């Protein structure tokens, strides 16, 4: 789902052509997630079908700008408000979400970070609870998950400190 | 004012209650607001962790909860007794009887051995030396430091001093345990052990408040509260299903 939400986030800055969205998506995510133009257009047409974006008129070269709809904004708000789960996480979704929250106007990034910290902390609490009374092998597996969740917590705490020191541009 | 409720079947008694507590240092333009309108209850049997960036007010919160510092606004109650109205001597007595501390900088007395450091709060309680010594031995054993009894703080490693400081807080079955970064100088295995000990005390009926900046230790808590710029911004309770 992340590409779709990433594109919606970019569209909150104004209508965009597909090729612009592709370039800006890669710039926002530090090129950790390269997109091909086909993926962008497929995603846009599905979002158009779902009423999340609306196409404008074609220019002389046959290119179409897309704009975000009210429904699209609601969908995006929901995405930002929903913490990513530790389990079955599509790789990098959290990173993309924070990069987009930094870029999109009107998103309270500190809040996105805090919601994620609380959610990951609950996962960490569950893992720690499961560890009590576990056998050694099971405990090591749980420890591995605990260290991963901990790394994310540390990163989020770091994000919070960096954001406090340098608030998002234009905010 | 509430008093602890001894009836079975009722929710666990609140051991420490902070109501809209603020702590300001200094006045006017140069004033530092270390804590702003913080409300927090910790009940018997509960382990609560406090997280937050450096300078967010974690140690301040702990010191206020234990009556080591007084708020500039709001109220603190320990075992149903409002600390604000207490004369200094009564406050000191209540602290000694009810509260065990592990300080961020440990505060072991250099001229006393590990056993003597652990005995000290009990001797101040008026417990006879032989019994205090026996209790100290048991507390040191509980934290896996029984072999350190006769060593002086300077003859111990950081992690060993840490264990002794924890033993000192455990001795005498205090109802309220306050620990400020109790895992400062230890590796993750020992750190988990320390949290396991605090967890055990909570399960035996104490109210435990732990400050830590390490998520893996905070995760031992029933509840994790986050401080930011002197305010509580959020909390995570174990057993709640996460979002989505
Ligand atoms: N006696 C004091 N006079 C003035 N300011 C103080 C005093 N004690 C604490 N502060 C300030 O209050 C704020 C909170 O301090 P506190 O020690 O509670 O932070 P902390 O969260 O425990 O930080 P750390 O993680 O570094 O231990 C800080 O800005 C600190 O400088
Ligand atoms: Mg501190």
Show the helix and strand layout.
The complex is a heterodimer of chains A (171) and B (244).
Chain A: H1 2-11, E1 16-17, H2 18-28, H3 37-49, E2 53-58, E3 64-68, H4 70-81, H5 93-103, H6 109-131, H7 136-165
Chain B: E1 14-25, E2 32-43, E3 47-51, H1 58-65, E4 73-78, E5 81-82, H2 88-98, E6 99-102, H3 114-124, H4 129-142, H5 158-170, E7 176-180, H6 188-203, E8 207-211, H7 215-218, E9 223-228, E10 231-237
Parallel strand pairs in B: 3-8, 3-9, 6-7, 7-8
Antiparallel strand pairs in B: 1-2, 1-4, 4-5, 9-10
Helix pairs in contact in B: 3-4, 3-5, 4-5
The complex binds adenosine-5'-triphosphate (ATP) and magnesium ion (MG).
Keywords:
heterodimer; A: 171 residues; mainly alpha; Arc Repressor Mutant, subunit A; 3-stranded antiparallel beta sheet; 7 helices; 3 strands; B: 244 residues; alpha/beta; Rossmann fold; 6-stranded mixed beta sheet; 4-stranded antiparallel beta sheet; 32% helix; disordered N terminus; disordered C terminus; binds adenosine-5'-triphosphate; binds magnesium ion
Task: Summarize the structure in words.
The complex is a heterodimer of chains A (171) and B (244). With 171 residues, chain A is mainly alpha-helical. Helices cover 64% and strands 8% of the residues of chain A. Chain A is built from 7 helices and 3 strands. In chain A, strands 1-3-2 form a 3-stranded antiparallel beta sheet. In chain A, β2 and β3 form a beta hairpin. The two termini of chain A are 27 Å apart. Chain B has a domain at 14-107 and 174-238: 3-Layer(aba) Sandwich (Rossmann fold), CATH 3.40.50.300. In chain B, the strands form 2 sheets. Chain B has a 6-stranded mixed beta sheet, with helices on both faces. In chain B, strands 2-1-4-5 form a 4-stranded antiparallel beta sheet, covered by helices on one side. Chain B is globular, with a radius of gyration of 18 Å. At the A-B interface, α6 and α7 of A face α7, β9 and β10 of B. The structure holds adenosine-5'-triphosphate (ATP) and magnesium ion. Residues 58-59, 104, 180 of chain B line the site of magnesium ion.
């Amino acid at each position: 789902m992340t590409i779709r939400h990433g594109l919606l986030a970019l569209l909150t800055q104004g209508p965009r052509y597909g090729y612009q969205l592709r370039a800006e998506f890669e710039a926002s995510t530090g090129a950790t997630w390269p997109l091909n133009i086909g993926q962008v257009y497929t995603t846009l047409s599905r979002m158009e079908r779902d009423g999340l974006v609306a196409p404008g008129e074609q220019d002389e070269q046959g290119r179409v700008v897309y704009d975000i709809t009210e429904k699209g904004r609601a969908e995006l708000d929901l995405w930002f408000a929903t913490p990513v789960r530790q389990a079955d996480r599509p790789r990098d979704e959290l990173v993309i979400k924070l990069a987009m929250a930094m870029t999109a106007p009107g998103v309270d990034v500190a809040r996105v970070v805090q919601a994620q910290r609380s959610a990951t902390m609950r996962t960490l609490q569950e893992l720690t609870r499961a560890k009590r009374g576990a056998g050694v092998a099971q405990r090591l597996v749980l420890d591995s998950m605990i260290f991963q969740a901990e790394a994310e917590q540390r990163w989020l705490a770091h994000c919070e400190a960096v954001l406090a020191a340098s608030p998002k541009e234009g905010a | 004012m509430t008093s602890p409720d001894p009836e079975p079947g009722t929710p666990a008694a609140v051991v420490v209650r902070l109501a809209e507590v603020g702590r300001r240092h200094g006045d006017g333009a140069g004033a530092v607001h270390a804590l702003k309108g913080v409300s927090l209850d910790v009940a018997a049997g509960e382990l609560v962790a406090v997280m937050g960036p450096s300078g967010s007010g974690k140690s301040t919160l702990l010191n206020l909860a234990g009556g080591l510092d007084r708020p500039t606004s709001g109220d603190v109650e320990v075992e149903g007794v409002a600390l604000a109205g207490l004369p200094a001597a009564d406050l000191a007595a209540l602290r000694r009887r009810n509260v065990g501390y592990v300080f961020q900088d440990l505060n072991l007395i250099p001229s006393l051995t590990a056993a003597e450091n652990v005995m000290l709060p009990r001797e101040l309680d008026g417990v006879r030396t032989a019994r205090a010594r026996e209790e100290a031995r048991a507390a040191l054993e509980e934290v896996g430091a029984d072999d350190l009894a006769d060593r002086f703080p300077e003859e111990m490693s950081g992690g060993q001093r840490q264990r002794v400081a924890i033993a000192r807080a455990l001795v005498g079955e205090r109802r309220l345990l306050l620990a400020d970064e109790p895992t400062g100088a230890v590796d993750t295995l020992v750190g988990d052990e320390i949290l396991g000990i605090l967890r055990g005390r909570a399960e035996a009926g104490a109210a435990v408040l732990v400050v830590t900046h390490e998520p893996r230790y905070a995760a031992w808590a029933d509840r994790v509260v986050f401080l930011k710029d002197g305010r509580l911004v959020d909390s995570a309770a174990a057993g709640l299903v996460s979002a989505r």
